[in-house]
Design brief:
Catalyzes the reduction of dTDP-6-deoxy-L-lyxo-4-hexulose to yield dTDP-L-rhamnose. It holds the Pfam family RmlD_sub_bind. It is an enzyme of class 1 (oxidoreductase). By secondary structure, this protein is an alpha/beta fold. It is built from ten helices and eleven strands. The protein has one domain: NAD(P)-binding Rossmann-like Domain (Rossmann fold, 3-Layer(aba) Sandwich). The strands form three sheets. The chain has a seven-stranded parallel beta sheet with strand order 3-2-1-4-5-6-10, with helices on both faces. Strands 7-9 form a two-stranded parallel ribbon. Helix 4 packs parallel to helix 5. The longest helix has 21 residues. Bound molecules: NADP nicotinamide-adenine-dinucleotide phosphate. NADP nicotinamide-adenine-dinucleotide phosphate (NAP) binds next to helix 1 and strand 5.
């Protein structure tokens, strides 16, 4: 049985990756500050600890999902962001290459500038903010360090959360109100994608390792702004949508791309498609957190 290591297994994506892949593979999950057994705490900034961990566990493949993913946090703490998103990713890729471990790097649609969607896997990257630049630099480092690598670009993610603020999608439910007017970005076009669909896709790829290698795009296809997501959530929660105000210009502090639609042409060719209806899926998540 293949042994798969996952970094960031305490995070939004890594947690669901762990819970999904464990059904088909031997899985070792690592987190950092939130890691509790069976997950291991491994500081990716500690190179000796990383080497010891790889030597001890000897995985066949490593899915690297740990990162700082909030653009505004990245801009506020550039040194820590570069250390985790770029330096630690490069070191891990190099260590994996030396041990014949397939390195699967989770990247983002924010490596694109959002001016010419849809983006094929081969499209030129041109990030607009520090978060996107660190992921672009990490992609380049992975390509340089490792011959056995896969780069997986994903758009904004949602899924089962301990608290709604954990995802840039479900946090919108905390920003709308039953009694007061609230404003929501209606400029950037997003493709909210459920973490379970990313996990199912990676499971399918890992089951046939010959299909791995190079760049993959994984994305749901329902296009919507945060205002449109807020509208759906307001309906689910029984709030009046007349209290929602759309903002039609870019409004956040770190520059965001307009529309980074990811064309998942390689997965289409492989016949791998895992998607779901946003309204149904977010309704289930909001009900789970409320109960
Ligand atoms: N979320 C999105 O909307 C989105 C969109 C596009 C791409 N992505 C990419 O998808 C991947 C997963 O994102 P996510 O949303 O699941 O992230 P997340 O929920 O913010 O989780 C981040 C993970 O990184 C770990 N981590 C932080 N510092 C660490 C360190 N020094 N050493 C080891 N681990 C450390 C955290 O561990 P502790 O919490 O235990 O400290 C946590 O498991 C990332 O590569 C991200 O760039 C995410």
């Amino acid at each position: 049985m293949q042994k798969i290591m996952i970094t960031g297994a305490t995070g939004l994506l890594g947690r669901t990756l762990y819970n999904t892949l464990i059904n088909d593979f031997e899985v070792i999950g690592t987190g950092f500050s939130r890691a509790k057994a069976p997950l291991h705490s491994l500081d990716l900034g500690n190179q000796h600890a990383v080497i010891d961990f790889l030597e001890h566990h000897k995985p066949d493949a490593l899915v690297h999902a740990a990162a700082e993913r909030k653009p505004d946090v990245c801009e506020a703490a550039p040194e820590q962001t570069i250390a985790l998103n770029v330096a630690a990713s490069e070191f891990l890729a190099k260590q994996c290459a030396q041990r014949g471990i397939h390195f699967i790097f989770i990247s983002t649609d924010y490596v694109f500038d959002g001016k010419a969607p849809p983006y094929l896997e081969s499209a030129q990257t041109a990030p607009l903010n520090l978060y996107g630049r660190t992921k672009q630099q990490a992609e380049q480092a992975v390509i340089t360090q490792s011959k056995q690598h896969s780069i997986i670009r994903v758009p904004v993610l949602y899924g089962d959360v301990a608290e709604l603020a954990e995802s840039a999608v479900s946090v919108i439910a905390t920003q709308i109100s039953a009694t007061e007017k609230t404003q929501h970005d209606n400029w950037a076009v997003r493709y909210p994608t459920h973490v379970e669909d990313i996990a199912f896709t990676l499971r399918d790829l890992l089951k046939h390792p010959a299909n791995l290698g190079g760049i993959f795009h994984i994305s749901d296809t329902q296009a919507m702004s945060k205002y449109q997501m807020a509208y759906i959530m307001a309906n689910i929660l029984g709030y009046s949508s007349t209290l929602l105000e759309p903002i039609d210009q870019p409004s956040q502090s770190a520059a965001r791309p307009h529309n980074c639609a990811l064309a998942d042409s390689r997965l289409n060719n492989l016949g791998i498609t895992h998607q779901r209806d946003f309204k149904v899926a977010i309704g289930k998540i909001l009900r789970n957190v409320a109960t």
